[in-house]
């Protein structure tokens, strides 16, 4: 039987499709609780996650109650692993007097025939203690018959056994065989003879109660039994949870509980079924059984939930709303997502108030409760109080205590967050903690985000950049920017360079470069041990800086940044063919395959290429400045020509051209809407339209003027497409789209009204462009 219960929000958006990956759920969840640092591995199948619960072998394999029972039977003279070998790996024929296994050797040396015979009988039953997987049901009848025989033998052996422990062991074997034969009456009968629900003293009693619970017809009583099994046996927890019927009214079950402990057991299972706020349930368990480790585990789960609810939106800007499908405009706004984390901070305050009200001397593991208090204080932005609680924990926790690592991480987060805007930095007191946890990507990113929120984008970028050097190759931090809008919900980041490319201003990139240069010459051991940015990364950042200035059309500043790199860098990065270091050549997607001043994609060449130069970012920028200077020179006789070349280049720097890499590091056929500041220009070629207009103003022949208008009209259509795509609603009908697009294009209308003789040539295709350009003079 499998029961799926989804316990947390799963983030899905309207842009998520079968065509590509989009992070959600566990991909984006932020958490700092490391379960290995806490003592609740026996509940590991029920750790909080954005997925459904699943059986965790750690919980099962870490439990050796049966082996411990056998060890006690052997006067503690045999180790658990030797017992486990016999129980798990040996067959019937392996149980022999000459066996070298110490467990069997002990039993034979003691001439314990009853124990040896039991082990042999149990091995005979093993094959039948499972569902037979036979799609044709050919062996079903024979299996049932064989189980009945073994069941009857087990009950006889139970009655004849002289030792109480073997009476129960044989009886349990009979019960388990009855279960696989779907014989609920035999389960009830044998259980009633040898076991009692009120006396569950050993693992055999627990296992028998588990099958008794399955056979119980009363739903409330069934839940009570499963709650007792769940509390008593980590190995049976997952299956008990699966059988537990959470829809049975909780009071019906609690009314059958005979004491506070049983009530706490019941409340625990109902609490595990609650994916939402569970504080009231926790309060009830505390009232019934404050020393219950299940209570502490539920608090651990609640803290895990709060980490997701508060930290995931706060640090990643991904929503944890399980109803999110991209239809709610508020859910699409990252600022709204950030604000919603404050709602859950209010709930964190309620949990904190509860912890402050309890008597910590009564709870299991008071230090864990104090740790929880420290993290909740951090969540509720009471940084000084949190640091005070952490200081107490540092005094009382032994140096080898694993919880100290979590304590230190929350300490570092407090130190980062508890700073003033603009004056925030990497605190000295946190540096050792950072070094120790430098491969914990979510922790390092969270520190960076705290600094970014406080205005220190330089150190934030340094922390983000360090993630690419992490030894953890499996976990990635997916995050967004506050600049995202519903138009760009598909935009997320996993690499710091992409984030800086989209979000940082040129001034911030320049500041980061300056910071790196200072740090690379710094003798501070922290920066040497944590992260040192190499020259190749610095070169990429200068490339980015120049690219950002191109986006702002600050060409001289762009050229200055590009000149820092030199021609060799651009020849290696943006040449038509690149070498991989093994004398193999490969084509690059970011190369300039044509000169952007003379060629247009999908358009026959119509401009003679008068100048030949190696095309890369620095040469294009330099030539664009040169041509603009000539075009703007009132004494230049060919101003129309140079304005036209400038327009061609700006056109090619849009997503429609062959020099898009002047503004972007990648383009997509699925659409190129982004949060970069030149998004509209990149999608509409507005500067090209402007300079085609300047060429028109200086044109001297009707044919060349007609060509300029034709090119302006092409850019106008891109602008029209862009505005339509981002303003219309989903019900827009496109049946007459091309006609509407043409009729509203003022440049095409001007072409038709002012140059009617050239109109048909211009509109019918591109074949006449060459003749019309040649007719410039």
TrEMBL record:
<feature type="signal peptide">
    <location>
        <begin position="1"/>
        <end position="18"/>
    </location>
</feature>
<keyword id="KW-0732">Signal</keyword>
<protein>
    <recommendedName>
        <fullName>Lipoprotein</fullName>
    </recommendedName>
</protein>
